[in-house]
Design brief:
One of its GO terms (biological process) is enzyme-directed rRNA pseudouridine synthesis. This is Pseudouridine synthase. The protein is of the alpha+beta class and 241 residues long. It is built from six helices and 16 strands. The protein has three domains: 53 residues, RNA-binding S4 domain (Structural Genomics Hypothetical 15.5 Kd Protein In mrcA-pckA Intergenic Region, Chain A, Roll), CATH 3.10.290.10; 91 residues, Alpha-Beta Plaits, CATH 3.30.70.580; 81 residues, 2-Layer Sandwich (Alpha-Beta Plaits), CATH 3.30.70.1560. Strands 7, 8, 9, 10, 13, 14, 15 and 16 form an eight-stranded mixed sheet that branches. A four-stranded antiparallel sheet has the order 3-2-5-6. A hairpin with a 2-residue loop joins β2 and β3. The chain is elongated and about 70 Å long.
């Protein structure tokens, strides 16, 4: 279910504000009835017309991108920097990122125009697993790993229990490689967690989102999700309820 004005905007009728104006003017019907109030949720089964002309609802699209460093995870950047949406300029329909990866973080990023699935995947209650590999400063020890696994306080909240393991230690260079799997997706969470236990992140790569990886995709490359992958994502959401 999505807001009527959002569906209209996605169908290219007008901007969201322009769509709201059309609704207020009584020019929009849902299932043959004039709608003038904001906030109505509609589904794919509802028939929507503007000035008695049926709107064509956009096809749902789903992509996975191997996000490079130095790219913004948003649709627009006020500073004019490259965004993840720029990789999809040739796509007629508008897509947007599912959640965010930091400017300097690389790896798995989903993009879609499915608002309902986006909300579910990014909502904390669904707890979709996200796995990162971090290069950190310092020789990390098992005590720090246990703290990460139990959950720790960062900012004004305590993180949920996580999965953590040491991948590699370079004592000479004073570096470590750590794999961390979390269920949340708060702002800079992985970086903050590792900094809290004393190991600042130098490089961060998200290697897995649920069951999805960037296998076969070079940095900056993307592919469309297969139908069974979309179904599996929706199944993950349902199983987490």
């Amino acid at each position: 279910m999505e807001r009527l004005q959002k569906v209209m905007a996605h169908a290219g009728i007008a901007s969201r504000r322009g769509s709201e104006k059309l609704i207020q003017e009584g020019r929009v019907k849902v299932n043959g009835k004039v709608v003038t109030e904001m906030g109505l949720n509609v589904s794919n089964k509802d028939a929507i017309t503007v000035d008695d002309v049926p709107i064509t609802k956009e096809q749902k699209l789903y992509f996975i991108l191997n996000k490079p460093r130095g790219v913004i995870s948003s649709a627009v950047d006020p500073k004019g920097r490259k965004t993840v949406v720029d990789f999809f300029e040739h796509i007629d329909q508008r897509v947007y990122p599912v959640g965010r990866l930091d400017y300097d973080t690389t790896g798995v990023l989903l993009l879609t125009n499915d608002g309902e699935l986006t909300n579910q995947l990014t909502h904390p209650k669904y707890g979709i697993e996200k796995t990162y590999i971090a290069k950190v400063t310092g020789v990390i020890d098992k005590t720090a790993i246990k703290k990460l696994e139990k959950g720790l306080k960062i900012d004004n909240y305590k993180t949920l229990p996580a999965k953590a393991r040491i991948l590699e230690i370079d004592s000479k260079k004073n570096k470590s490689m750590v794999e961390l799997t979390i269920h949340e997706g708060k702002n800079h969470q992985v970086k903050k967690m590792l900094k809290t236990v004393g190991y600042p992140v130098e490089k961060l790569n998200r290697v897995q989102y649920g069951f999805l990886t960037t296998e076969g995709l070079k940095s900056g490359e993307w592919r469309e999700l297969k139908s069974f992958e979309v179904k599996k994502l929706k199944q993950l959401v349902n199983e987490s309820l």
